[in-house]
Amino acid sequence: MGIYTKEDLVAYAPTEDVELYPDSDGKPMAVSDLHRRILTRTIDVLDAYFQDRPEVYVSGDILMYYVKGDPRKSVSPDVLVAFGLGKKLRRTYLVWNEGKVPDFAMEFSSESTYQNDLGRKMELYASLGIQDYFLYDAEGLYLPSPLMGFTLVDGAYTPISEGSDGGLRSSALGLDFHVSDVGLGIYDPALDEWLQTPAELAVARAELAENRAENAENRAQQETQRAENAEAEVARLREALARLQTGGRN
After folding, report:
1. Measuring CA to CA, which residue among 120, 106, 136 is closest to residue 32?
2. Within a 10 A sphere around the Cβ of 17, how many other Cβ atoms?
3. DSSP 123-136
4. Which of 147-161, 202-216, 221-235 is predicted most confidently?
5. Of 32-36, 148-152, 240-244, where does mean pLDDT reach its minimum?
6. DSSP 8-class letter at 60
7. Which of 65, 101, 90 is nearest to 8 (CA)?
8. Cβ distance 148 to 159 under 8 Å?
9. Is the dihedral of CA 76, 59, 126, 168 positive or negative?
10. Per-residue pLDDT tens digits for 88-104
11. Of residues 20, 27, 25, 48, the one with CA closest to residue 186
12. How far apart are CA 188 and CA 49, in angstroms?
């Protein structure tokens, strides 16, 4: 999301690296609708959260090559976040060009991927030095727990313990991940709020504006009613005073 400059689009144009490091491995993404929807929402949420930080790059399902000269050495995280890179559009993530690996990677595990996600891929991400590694099982069928998180300690991944609210905190992002009614919820403890996609934010703002308008209308109606009641009370008092002044005569 966001507005990209001419320089961004130029950087996205094909280069001599495309033939050696293609932007597709030719394998289809075989996942369920639920899996795909939650994955897309997660990337949108993180993209929106970091939109005002130009040094933060958020992406997903992009081929990351980690050994220069060996295109076989590649991996494609479902979600990645890297600090200090900038938001330019990329076809591939070439670690030697970027100067670093992502700070956060996440895999949405399925029947065909969960064993690799918990095995070879976890070992690879640890050896590359990716600080936080999270896994999510949208169907709740394949992982030991629907949501799992690991952080790098002395070169190896250590499980992240659940917080008192059941969330798993990514120290790299400063955000808490939860299994929630939207599938995968992301909470910002600093702002004390759940993160939303731009579309969700637009709906929430529209609802807030509508509620404010309704409240304003209700207050106006209440003020009108109070004014009418006050006028009626003044009229009653005037009538009572008039009767007193005439000795109670009609």
Report:
1. 136
2. 16
3. HHHHHHT-SEEEEE
4. 147-161
5. 240-244
6. -
7. 90
8. yes
9. negative
10. 889 999 999 999 999 99
11. 48
12. 9
For residue 212, the model assigns a pLDDT of 65
| C-alpha 87: how far from chain center | 16
Residue-range domain boundaries for the chain:
6-195, 197-250
Structure tokens, 124: 């690879």
Please choose, from the candidates 177, 184, 169, the residue with its C-alpha nearest in 3D space to the C-alpha of residue 138.
184
pLDDT tens, residue by residue, 188-204 = 999 999 999 988 887 76
Instruction: Give me the architecture of the 6-195 domain, per CATH.
Output: Alpha-Beta Complex (3.90)
Residues whose CB falls within 8 Å of the CB of residue 41, separated by 6 or more in sequence, listed in order: 182, 183, 184, 197
d(CA 201, CA 51): 14
Residue of 245 and 22 predicted with greater confidence: 245
Residue 1: both structure tokens together: 């999301």
Q: Write the CA distances from 136 to 57, 161, 177, integer angstroms.
A: 21, 15, 10
Q: Which two tokens stand for residue 128?
A: 């590359």
Residue 156 tokens, joined: 């190896």
Give the DSSP H or E segment for 185: strand 183-188
Contact of 61 with 74, CB cutoff 8 Å: no
